[in-house]
């Protein structure tokens, strides 16, 4: 229970207890020269009944106020717990948001890295295809050159034989 509320409750009870003034059963004179005049018993009975009703009403009022204070204390405690729960949930939510942000950034970096790797791979594949095409072109050029060389060599040999046959024939 909240000590401040407890203190207020005790103070209120003490003030209410001071308000209760006992009614004497006999009339007290207001001045020394005044003679005491006894009240009739019906008046005393009525006053007594009214005092009892007042006391009961005051007790009921105190009981209701006490219940109200206890209920207020309980609600205050519950509100405090709920505020703590809300704060914990806010902190957890903030941590979750940060984690989601970090995961998204990591995924974006990974996607960028994968995209670069894919582009490099495609570029390397294209370079490889160009190199292979160049190899085939050069191979065909070499094969053509070899064939031409053989043809020329055959032509040279034929011309040498023809030249030799002209020299021998003369």
From TrEMBL:
Coiled coil start-end: 47-99
Name of protein: Uncharacterized protein
Region (Disordered): 1-41
Keywords from the named record: Coiled coil
The organism of origin for this protein: Alexandrium catenella (Red tide dinoflagellate)
Origin: domain of life: Eukaryota
Residue spans of biased composition, Polar residues class: 23-41
């Amino acid at each position: 229970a909240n000590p401040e509320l407890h203190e207020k409750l005790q103070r209120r009870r003490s003030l209410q207890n001071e308000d209760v003034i006992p009614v004497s059963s006999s009339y007290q004179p207001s001045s020394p020269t005044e003679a005491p005049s006894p009240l009739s018993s019906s008046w005393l009975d009525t006053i007594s009944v009214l005092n009892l009703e007042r006391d009961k009403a005051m007790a009921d009022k105190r009981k209701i106020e006490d219940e109200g204070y206890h209920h207020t204390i309980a609600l205050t405690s519950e509100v405090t717990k709920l505020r703590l729960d809300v704060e914990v949930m806010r902190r957890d939510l903030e941590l979750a948001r940060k984690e989601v942000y970090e995961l998204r950034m990591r995924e974006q970096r990974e996607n960028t890295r994968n995209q670069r790797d894919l582009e490099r791979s495609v570029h390397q594949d294209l370079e490889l295809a160009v190199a292979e095409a160049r190899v085939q072109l050069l191979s065909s050029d070499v094969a053509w050159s070899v064939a031409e060389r053989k043809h020329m060599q055959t032509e040279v040999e034929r011309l040498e034989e023809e030249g030799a046959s002209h020299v021998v024939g003369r």
